[in-house]
Each structure stands twice: as C-alpha cells, then as structure tokens.
Amino acid sequence: MSAAAETNARQRAARAKKIRQFITPEGVDLELKIAGSGLRFGALLVDLILIQLALLLFWLAVLWIGVASQSDVTEVIWMLGAFLLRTFWFIGFELGSRAATPGKRLMGIRVVARDGGRLTADAVVARNLIRELEIFLPLMMLGVGVAEDAVSGWLMLAGVLWSLTLSLFLLFNRDRMRMGDLIAGTWVVMAQRVKLDADIGVEAAGDAMVFSEAELAVYGIFELQELERVLRGRDPRAMREVADAIRAKIGRAIAEEDDVFLLSYYRQLKARLERKLLFGKRREDKYASD
Amino acid sequence: MIPPAAPARLIDAPSFSTSRFRAEREADWIAFDLLLTKLEKKGAAALTSDELLQLPLLYRATLSSLSIARATSLDKALLDHLEALSIRGYFLVYGVRESRWNRLRRFFLYDWPAAVRSVWKETLIISLIILLGALTSYSLVASNPEWYFNFVPEEMSGGRDPRATAEFLQSTLGHGKAAASKGESGLHVFATYLFTHNSQVSILSFALGFAFGVPTMMLEYYQGIGLGAMMAVFSAKGLGYDFGGWLFIHGTTELFAAALSGAAGLRIGTAVVFPGARGRLQAAADAGRTAGKVMVGVILMLFTAGLLEGFGRQLITDTLLRYAIGALMLLFWLAYYYIPRREDVT
C-alpha cells in the first residue's frame, strides 16, 4: 500500500520537476513543461530526413535543368543549395510564428526565450549556428580519424568522446538545454495542441445512480482523472475492468451497465472533490487523508 | 429546534458548478482557437480590425478561465486544453511585434553595425592574433624555406611552395599563360566552393568560442600562419607586390569576416569566463545574441568575398586595380560598421 503511495508521489514529483514557472504580464503562471530529450532527438531526426529529401528533390530538379542546359551551373546550385538548406532550414522555420521546425511541430514542441520575452532573430541564429558544431564536430573527428591512419584509435576515441560531451550537453542539465540553447538564452518546451473534448460531467446518464458519501470517499484526484481517461477512451474492456475494481472496493453488486455506473460515479466523485477544492482541500490520491 | 439536515441527496449540483462555468465560457475559447489558427496560417495582415480588437480580449478571457479552472475544476481534458490554448495565445499575442520587412530593415540599418561595433575589442584582439600568426610563419619561412612544409599541407598549396619557379608562381596569380588557358568556365563553381568552405570555417570558429575562446584563437592563429607562409614564398621570388594584389581584392573582406567571426566566438568565451555581475547563464545568453547578429553579417560578408574571389580576382588581372578594389571594400566595411549614426528609436 505505502509502496504504491510512494510511486504515485514519485511520479508527481517527476512531473513537477519538468514544469517551469513562466508568468505572463497578466500574472498567470503558464507552467511550461520542458521537452524531454527523446522528443528533441526525434524532432532532429525528422528534420534531417526532411532536409535530405528536399535536397534529393532539388537535386533531381537540378539534374533535369542540367541535362537541358548542359552547364556547370548545376554544380553551383547543388553546393550552394546544400549549404543554404542546411544552415537556414532551422533558422527559417524557428523565426516563424510557431517557432518550430517541421520536426518540432510533429513532436509538439517549440523554442521559447528563457526570460519570457520575445524570441528574437539573433537568438534563433545563435542557437542554430552552434548546431553546426554539435552535429558535425563528432562526425569531423571520425572523418579525420579514418582519413589519417596515423592517428591512433585511442586518440580518435578521445576526440569523439570530447565532442560528444558537447553534443549531448542537454542530457547533463535539468533544463534540457543544448549548447546552442545555453548561448542563445532559449528553452525548448512542450507546445502540444489539445482538442477541447466534450464535457462528460453533464450527460444525462450521470444521475442514474446515487452513491453515498462513504462510497465516494475512497478515491482522490489521481483516480478521478484516471477514470476520466478511461471514460473518454470508450474501450469496453477497460471500462469493465475499472468498473469491477470500483464495485469491489465500495462493495456494490453488478446491477447496471458499466458505462452508466462509471459515469454516475465519475460525476458524483468529481462534484465531491471539486467542492472540497473550493474549500482549499486538495486530495491528490486515495492514499492521502480525506 | 433546529431541523435535522435534509436526508435527501447529498450530491446535488451546487450553485457554482464547473459544468456551468464551462458552458458559459466555452464560446470564447473556441473563438480564440479559431482566431489563433487564422493568425498562424495567414499572419496578422489577414485579420480584420474587428478581429484584431477581439484578440487581446479573448486572450485575457482565456487566461482568466485558466486561473479559475485550475482552482475549481478537476476535468483534466479541460485543464489541458486551456493550458495549451493559453500558451499558444501568449506566444502569438506577445511574440509578433514587427513585420519581417521591418526586422530586416532594422537589422541592416542598425542592429548589424551596432553588434559589430560592440565587439570592437575582440575584433582587435583577433586581428592581432591573425597578424601574429602571419608574422610568425613569415619570419620562419623567410629564414628557412623548409618551414613552409610544416605550415601548409601539400594538397592545399597546389605546387605553390619554395621549390616552385618564379614563373609558375606568377601564373598562379593570374598573369601568365597558364591562367589564360584555364578559361573562365569554372569560376562560379570555384566561388561557390570558396563561399561554403569559408562560411563553415567561420561558423566553427564562432561556435568553438564557448570553450573559453581558446580554440577560436587557435583557429584564427592558424589562418594567419598559412597566410604568412604563402607571403614569404612569393616575396622571396620578388612577387610580393603582385601577391598582395591577388590577396587584397577579396582578402580585406574575407579576413575582416574571419576576424569578426573569431571576435563573436571570443565574446561568448569571455562572457562565460568573466560573467561580471550577471549570472553565468545570463551573460552567455546576452553575448550569444550579439554574436548571433555578428555571425549573420559574417556570412553575408563571406558571400561577398566569395564573389570577389571567384569572379573579381579571376577577371581582373591588373594588380593596381586589384589593390584599389580591395581598399575600396575595406573602406566600405569600416564606414558601414564604425561611422556613428543616430540610433533607431522604434
């Protein structure tokens, strides 16, 4: 029992550790969440793949022109295009109003100025020019090592490791800042779109059953929100399991449909906990005292 | 006698209910969401004046809803939606203050020169380092030509080393027959190659700045070394004047840009080592923003240098004219950066 309580508390603490205070001029804390390293890496990967694809398309187009005009203009376009695309892909997209490259958009993250101010163009430029170093220095170290056999394996390994500590800098700090974020004064935070789902608290079925105070007192906010998730998921098997668990806990026999039971229970539990919330009592989970 | 509490249903909808709260405000949130989507897709210009007036009102309504919901509601879907909507709204309402065109104009008129002016100390130091590198290798190679091979790798020199004849060296400067027969077909390829290569070196020298500026200084010193060694080889054959012109036409722009990129790196390095009264992170961020502006300028300068090197130098073979163009470019950059101007008031 206490082990489960501890797990819950630990999960809450882990979530709280990712939240950063971010107070708007109106005085509301937006509670930004720092994007995890996995999402960051995923976004980078998507962007790199997209850049390669764009280059490939570009190359095909250039090839077509080149065949048509038979000049070495193609070579220039190829070199210049590759350089410009690589350097300005990130800068161009992050200067837009969503401050995110396509990869970042896909992952639901965006760049934000650390001080809460406007994300300026110079910050975007600085954070992305550093990327050149972070990605290409380890590759360059490898390249040099391979090209010159004289360099001993250990030396090459040391070089790669040293440059990797720069590239993986974001793993070593709480705010998941790259070297570039550090220099530019930026953060990458969660910026997902969340659709406004229907209010399941007002549906007619919610009043079909009435639960006593004692029956409602067994759960807290964590369980309420898990129940909400199950109700919104509308998976019959999950609903059956949860309904059985609740019935067992409060000692009710199976008498009605699962969804009617769960919806009534959800609605009354929510009303009870919200009333308590208005009086300043926030019961985090079932292990907390009522 | 007080009547006993009504035994009726305990769970009655209270007079304030979160469902009613939601029903009352939901229209605002939906309107705000639609407005934001329009703003993101088409920009501020696409909004009518009515919508523009609505934007801050809806934004504040949403933020206030978020505050109330956090204090009263336990509906996770509602809370998450309001939070996401507020974050999106905040960055759009407070983020866009200037059109792209205005930003661009301000960058060229004020921000770029101001950023370059503010790193003048670092620029001076890096220039001295490059000069020191050039002098070192020049004196070493002049006293003993064997040193040359330590400084300039074989594949880079392309035969331009102390063993080469004066005639061959002359030809590499674009005066002899060899230059004429080479033709002009490869010029733009050459220019492009130079531009991309130099840009990458400059970005690297900037990016390495945060390691306390040491790698930056080493990189710039090394650039000077190569320069000095070449200079020594040519002047030993009595071609110093011609080589100067060959170098000067684009070198003033290119070396200036190299010095600026080094200066930008050094600025970050010094900010990390000596943050002053600010926190180290804050100092690094401030320095990084200035350096970022300088670096955009550096890339533009290198583009100019690439054009001058690829086209100008190959097409203009008169040494005096080469000097004149190089000097003109230098004067232009100096005037652009360092002539004081009235600051932008907007």
Question: What does this 3D model show about the protein?
Answer:
- The complex is a heterodimer of chains A (290) and B (346).
- Chain A contains 11 helices and 4 strands, in the order αββαααβαααβαααα.
- Chain A has helices at residues 2-18, 37-69, 73-94, 102-107, 121-147, 153-167, 179-184, 213-216, 221-233, 236-250, 258-278; strands at residues 19-20, 32-33, 109-113, 186-190.
- A two-stranded antiparallel sheet of chain A has the order 1-2.
- In chain A, helix 2 runs antiparallel to helix 3 (73-94) and helix 9 runs antiparallel to helix 11 (258-278).
- By secondary structure, chain B is an all-alpha fold.
- The N and C termini of chain B lie far apart (74 Å).
- In chain B, helix 4 packs across helix 13 (280-315) and helix 12 runs parallel beside helix 14 (319-338).
- Chain B is elongated and about 95 Å long.
- The model of chain B is unreliable at 1-11 and 176-185 (pLDDT under 50).
- The chains are: A mainly alpha (290), B mainly alpha (346).
- At the A-B interface, helix 3, helix 5, helix 7, helix 9 and helix 11 of A face helix 1, helix 2, helix 3, helix 4 and helix 10 of B.
Task: Annotate the secondary structure layout.
The complex is a heterodimer of chains A (290) and B (346).
Chain A: H1 2-18, E1 19-20, E2 32-33, H2 37-69, H3 73-94, H4 102-107, E3 109-113, H5 121-147, H6 153-167, H7 179-184, E4 186-190, H8 213-216, H9 221-233, H10 236-250, H11 258-278
Antiparallel strand pairs in A: 1-2, 3-4
Helix pairs in contact in A: 2-3, 3-5, 5-6, 9-11, 10-11
Chain B: H1 18-42, H2 49-72, H3 76-95, H4 100-118, H5 120-143, H6 148-151, H7 154-157, H8 166-172, H9 177-182, H10 187-207, H11 214-236, H12 240-273, H13 280-315, H14 319-338
